[in-house]
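Table S2 (continued). Query chain:
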Amino acid sequence: MRAKFILYLSLLIPFALVFIYVLNTSTDLVAGDDMYLIKGGFIEGYLKGTLTFNDLWRPLHVSRLLGYNLLQIANIKLSSMNSKNLALLIPFFMLASAILIYREYRKSLVLEHSPEFIAATFLVLTFIIFNIIQWEGLLGGCDLVYQSSMPFFIASFIGTELFLLRGNWKYLPVTFILTPLAMLVFNGRLYVSFIPTLGSIFLCYLLNYRSSLTKDFWIRALLISLFIAVIAFLYMYKININANFPYAATEVFAHPLEVSEFLLAAFASSVVGVDVFFSSTYFSFNTMLIIGLIIVILYVLALALFFRSRMYERTYLPLFLIVQTFFYLGFMTIGRFELGKDSGMASRYACVSIYGIAAMVWIFIFILAHPKKLKALLKSTIITGFIIVFSGLLLTSMVVWRIQPQRKAYFEQLPNIALRVDTATPEELSKFFESPERVRDSLRLLREYKLNAYRTSSAERE
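Corresponding output:
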């Protein structure tokens, strides 16, 4: 019972802090990518009674958002499209991810340590997972896209590992259910990194066990490969139709040095958030590059320790989370590099990269808690890594909470602008984080059907 109580505290205290932040800061108005889904999107089709599955399946920025679209329809029916309701779901998806990670975390330490020790040290990971360094992925309805996919991909990987790598056939039905849910329904932005990550871990497994692979393993591998290939084909089939490619990926190959800086800044921003960069004179872009390089070195150390300690014999999940972070940031660089070298520091990308940080710290805990005595240099390096990571995250949390009233005040401007949609200036409409004309057209459609900002009168809102 004591272990369960400690675990509940390790989960619920960080969860409560994030939930309070979302509750007090998030907006109930649509903004950002939601504008693409209203006028000319599936929401217009739904409101006018012409909705088809193709409307729900149509990609946005080469991402299919079927799960989010269905949640948005439910939100329209139940609350006249109050976007705050979707934002409040985000902490619960994060909680689901944390619980799934705890399952594997406990398995990795249970042979040497007590349940109380495992539950207490898990607070270190939940501090990372629930950290508000990812504030940009917490505050609006469309931010649910970044957060809802993670528990499905983690669950899908756990099922795949148990079936494919551990030979447990009873997990085949689970894998066949969770993988389509992750890839086709709640894929968010992670679909681009899932298959390459699986392939990388499969290759590592082959190298580790190349002399003992059985016929049964190859049958499982063929079965999973064919299944995932079919899912990938369904996802990618005609994805370029109405996909809205906004950036020129060729820019990446023309500027290799700047790309390296972009990536290092992105790695740094998973520990020292973009708010710290913009609000402090002590963090220049060059400082962020140095921090990013340190984080990459810590990742390399963690991966080396993962294989040297044979941690993979207990779980591959830390490797999955780290490799997924690498691929995600790599693909994000291809899509976003054109926006500028510092655009990779956007906190929405921390919704993925913090799981890589959590996995790195998990490996360090596994090594430090192992009965085998460590060399002084390795131990001091790991402890230094802890100090860097947690100092950065703590500093970022303090800064994000400090400027929380400013963000809340920003969102409180939006209802008044929406109620003046016909006369609002382009500068005012741009506060919804999309082009003024797209915002105006979408808000007019919502006004026609008395949704979102128009679900009550201005007097009632005041």
